[in-house]
Amino acid sequence: MIIVKSKRDLKSLIGSWKAKGEEHGVVMTMGALHEGHLALVDAANKDNDRVIATIFINPRQFDNKADLETYPIDTNEDLRKLKASGVDAVYLPQVGEIYPVGYSTTVSVADMQDCLCGATRPGHMDGVTTVVSKLLIQTNPDRAYYGQKDFQQFLLIQRVARDLDLMVDVIGVPTIREEDNLALSSRNRRLNTEQRKIAPTLFKVESAIADLLIQGEAVDHVLEWGRNYILEAGFEKVDYLELRSEENLTLITDSSSKEERLSSRVFVAAWMGNIRLIDNLPISR
């Protein structure tokens, strides 16, 4: 496994692959790797001749400075996992390689950004779409893989690639979960024992909401029930619990058609202490 830290070396490596007619996929990470990240690598290995992973903790997507300061870092362990999973190369740039002195450009998507995490974390999505755009340009992949736990992010990256004519297939990989259905996240390791017991409540509520909607219950009613259940279970704050279109994140309400309801997802973000967990689940599973 090759480790590259500069754009120049990255360009040379990828050029050598393309010269041999080899297709490559990219998996972008901020480190603190878990089985969810490795599932992206597995998907990329199946589709491509070569796979490159990136590790870059992007300061521009943290709206909370404390969250950035407490983000878990173990680069040696991350590299070990990537090598074992069959990654061909890792791009490990410093901040200056991504945001050189005088950098002043932001990539922003007008649609689908004023809701969910875009509404509750000011500047976060602009930070995501900006760094992903740069990494897609630098790694120049045939395919790029993103987890559907961050479904809003996945849709925004698809839109960026389409709108900017980036010649890459943006592929979503289903959420990987623990045995108790907690969605895998780097933040899970910050949960204490009691919080970890409470955390699977999010999936439990999502699943119940999906079942109730399929049975014909009113959207507003089940969402109100779900919010109360999450808070009573031990979460301290719910940023959002909403039903939105899988295609463009349009809000689904009681006035929406049955077809729209059944082709939507339930999205949730909630806090325990200073830890924010997110999840989503399609209604028709």
Automatic annotation (TrEMBL):
A Pfam family per the record: Pantoate_ligase
Gene3D superfamilies linked: HUPs, Pantoate-beta-alanine ligase, C-terminal domain
Binding site residues for ATP: 30-37, 147-150, 176, 184-187
Subunit structure: Homodimer.
Alphabetical list of HAMAP family matching this protein: PanC
Sequence similarity: Belongs to the pantothenate synthetase family.
Entry protein name: Pantothenate synthetase
Species, as recorded: Kiloniella antarctica
Gene it is expressed from: panC
